[in-house]
Design goal:
The chain is built from eight helices and 19 strands. The longest helix has about 35 residues. Strands 1, 2, 3, 4, 5, 6, 7, 8, 9 and 10 form a ten-stranded mixed β-sheet that branches. Helix 4 runs antiparallel to helix 5. It has about 375 residues and is α+β, with helices and mostly antiparallel strands. The protein has two domains: about 200 residues, Nucleotide cyclase, GGDEF domain (Alpha-Beta Plaits, 2-Layer Sandwich), CATH 3.30.70; about 100 residues, predicted glycosyltransferase like domains (Thrombin, subunit H, Beta Barrel), CATH 2.40.10. The protein starts with 11 loop residues before the first helix and ends with a helix. It is elongated. Strand 9 and strand 10 form a beta hairpin. About 0% of the residues have low confidence.
Length: about 375
């Protein structure tokens, strides 16, 4: 028999066991609470850099931290701002970082709403994936809906920026569906949860053919969503490193389930009839390629340049254009544009360029000239 303490109905050994177990339970609860706080801290902190669902997968699965991946079919959305690099060179760096963060925050809100996973920010570009870590039966459709919503959200953001004295931002979006490797990529020293594969590269190539305000999707995505979207006529383009032409579809609306229409962007097609000599170069992978070509403008405004060019340029070709003059104490900066069309008229090659990047002061001068001409 255990010892008995007078005035107590419970033996001392039993009371000691109860006390010991109570202390142990309190310690377990304390450690569990600390671990929960740590896990929540990790989720909240790294959720700013990774999708929160990705963080959950890494924390909760036994192989979440192992290097390696699995093959999955996903839809990749690549967005990129037009002319942001040139804009950055002309403004205060801290001011541009604030502007960029504001843009990325607004786009991130839209992406999260449509359940996309932001794989990474690449400067002013956003790589987003639909179909990981969770797969849905409508991943391609949600990606297209997200892209249209992103473009419309940028219109609203631009209205705010213009009132605050900033130039408007322009964004192109390309979408592609296909097989990728998903998982932890890297080494034991440093790893990244993400995707790799040709599907990502093709999405980037599709995006590179966009002009501001445009959503282009590849054939593999179009096959999956064609019954639910409104698309303009497709066009094909042969790109370096690819074995067959890319067929891309401009999307203007999604009619089922999400019901989103691409907001109209006013484009002044009248402009001013003016003859300005220039030289231009093809741009390939952000580098000038080939010899300079000479030309002369026929009609020009803040969005479009119609010109006579000595060489035929294929549609969707990127070009850098420099005017050959300075007047009224102003010299135009470099202009970047994309070929919209080129056709022979009266023994001349008449080419239409959509301006993708232009100094704001130059745009203001063109607006002034057009207003005076009107």
């Amino acid at each position: 028999m255990g010892s008995f303490v007078p005035g107590s109905s419970t033996p001392r050994e039993i009371r000691e066991i109860i006390s010991s177990r109570t202390q142990m339970l309190n310690k377990i609860l304390e450690v569990s609470e600390e671990r929960l706080q740590l896990v929540n801290f990790i989720r909240n902190t790294f959720g700013r850099y990774l999708s929160k669902r990705v963080v959950d997968e890494i924390l909760e699965t036994t192989d979440g931290q192992e290097i390696g991946g699995r093959r999955k079919t996903v839809t990749v959305l690549m967005s990129d701002l037009r002319g942001f690099t040139g804009l950055s060179e002309a403004r205060d760096p801290e001011d541009m970082v604030r502007l960029l963060n504001r843009y990325l925050e607004r786009m991130s809100e839209v992406i999260i709403k449509y359940d996309g996973m932001i794989d990474e920010f690449i400067g002013d570009a956003i790589l987003t994936v639909f179909g990981v870590p969770e797969e849905h039966d409508d991943d391609p459709l949600r990606a297209v809906a997200c892209a249209l919503a992103m473009q419309n959200a940028l219109v609203k953001l631009n209205n705010e920026l213009i009132r605050e004295g900033y130039p408007p931002l322009e964004m192109g979006i390309g979408i592609n569906t296909g097989s990728v490797i998903v998982g932890n990529i890297g080494s034991e020293i440093r790893a990244k949860y993400g995707i790799v594969g040709a599907t990502v590269n093709v999405a980037s190539r599709i995006e590179s053919n966009t002009v501001g305000g445009e959503v282009l999707i590849g054939e593999s995505t179009y096959r999956r969503v064609k019954g639910s979207v409104t698309a303009d006529s497709p066009h094909s383009v042969m790109m370096k490193g690819l074995k067959k032409p890319l067929v891309i579809y401009p999307i203007t609306a999604i009619v089922e389930r999400y019901d989103i229409k691409l907001g109209s962007r006013p484009v002044n097609r009248h402009g001013i009839e003016i003859c300005l000599p220039f030289h231009c170069w093809k741009v390939d992978d952000k580098k000038m390629a080939g010899e300079a070509m000479s030309g002369e403008t026929i009609n020009i405004n803040e969005n479009l340049i119609t010109a006579s060019v000595e060489t035929h340029l294929e549609s969707l070709t990127d070009i850098k254009l420099i005017f050959d003059f300075c007047m009224d104490a102003h010299c135009f900066s470099d202009i970047y544009a994309k070929v919209v069309s080129a056709e022979e008229q009266n023994n001349k090659i008449v080419t239409r360029f959509r301006i993708t990047a232009m100094d704001q002061e130059d745009r203001d001068i063109l607006k002034k000239w057009a207003s005076e001409a009107a």
